[in-house]
Structures are given as structure tokens and as C-alpha cells.
């Protein structure tokens, strides 16, 4: 799945399949300006910052069990969001410090370091990497990902795929080749 925020006409947190199909709103009320999003892949939770409402909130992948982690004026200065173990990590754009926040109750806020210029944060650690299994976009014997001549996108599961073409090409009637 692909998770993303939108604060155009109607602010929301959404998810869809990797090929853009099955687009679903998972948060569409009491939300104004969601600017950063992080996933807990193990427990299947979505965290986001709303800088207008000055909140950090969480829901499960279906949009249920919504909780406010923390709120207050300091939220409007946060950008980027990552989750690892018991903490959320974000950047305070006011003083360019990396902050660590307890993700269960919003307490234990600590400034960890200062940076010259940052707008995003990511945690890379072996335990956060999902195990790779066989999937529909694996390279076939002729060297094409998922049998697609240009682009292979996972669809509704790791067993399904959709072929797409680069700009200027159209998908052939076989659903795999681009012309």
C-alpha cells in the first residue's frame, strides 16, 4: 500500500494500492493541514502531523482507533516524521533540532541534535525493513520486471501487478508491452 496526505479542498490521509487503484480515505474529519506521515509497519499504524490543528495523531490502517499523541503550538514548527521503537522523530524547523517524542503518550520530548538545514527525517535500521518475498514485479527470464516492458507496479497484493508505460508510450493490447 501507499499512504499519503492531502490538504487541498478537503484535507485527508489516504491509502491506495501501489498502482494507484483502490484509493481510500482513512482520515477525513477533524483534519486541516496534514504535512508529514510515518508508518508503523509492524503494528500497522499511521502517524501524521497537522500543523494547523497543532496535533500529532495516529490511526490504524483502516482509519480506526484514532488517538491524539500530543498537541500544542510547538507542532506548527515540526516537519518530517519517522517512527522507530517507542518514539516518533521529527525536525523542529524553528531551531533545526531533531526531536524525539514518546509515541504512546507524547511525553519525554528530547532534542537530540541540531542540523544546518533539514525538512525530512527517516530511520534506517535492519529491524524496520520488511522481509522481501517473491512478488509479481520480479524480473522475468527475459529481464523485464513482472513481464512489463517499461514499468511494473504492484497492485492489490504482492501477487498482482499492473504494467505502465513511460511518457510518450501507450500500453499494448497484451497489457505488458509499450508502443
From TrEMBL:
GO terms for molecular function: Wnt receptor activity; Wnt-protein binding. GO terms for cellular component: plasma membrane. SUPFAM superfamilies: EGF/Laminin (SSF57196), YWTD domain (SSF63825). SMART domains: LY (SM00135). LDL-receptor class B repeats lie at residues 1-43. GO terms for biological process: canonical Wnt signaling pathway. This is LRP1B protein. Coiled coil: none annotated. It comes from Melanocharis versteri.
Amino acid at each position: 500500500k501507499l499512504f499519503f496526505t492531502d490538504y487541498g479542498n478537503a484535507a485527508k490521509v489516504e491509502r491506495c494500492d501501489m498502482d494507484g487503484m483502490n484509493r481510500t480515505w482513512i482520515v477525513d474529519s477533524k483534519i486541516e493541514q496534514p504535512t508529514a506521515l510515518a508508518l508503523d509497519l509492524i503494528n500497522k499504524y499511521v502517524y501524521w502531523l497537522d500543523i494547523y490543528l497543532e496535533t500529532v495523531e495516529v490511526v490504524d490502517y483502516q482509519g480506526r482507533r484514532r488517538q491524539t499523541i500530543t498537541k500544542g503550538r510547538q507542532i506548527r514548527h515540526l516537519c518530517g516524521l519517522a517512527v522507530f521503537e517507542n518514539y516518533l522523530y521529527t525536525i523542529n524547523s524553528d531551531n533545526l533540532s531533531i526531536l524525539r517524542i514518546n509515541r504512546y503518550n507524547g511525553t519525554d520530548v528530547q532534542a537530540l541534535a541540531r542540523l544546518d538545514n533539514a525538512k525530512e527525517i527517516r530511520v534506517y535500521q535492519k529491524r524496520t525493513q520488511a522481509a522481501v518475498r517473491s512478488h509479481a514485479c520480479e524480473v522475468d527470464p527475459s529481464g523485464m520486471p513482472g513481464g512489463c516492458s517499461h514499468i511494473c507496479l504492484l497492485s492489490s497484493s504482492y501477487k498482482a501487478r499492473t504494467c505502465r508505460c513511460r511518457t510518450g508510450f501507450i500500453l499494448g493490447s497484451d497489457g505488458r508491452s509499450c508502443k
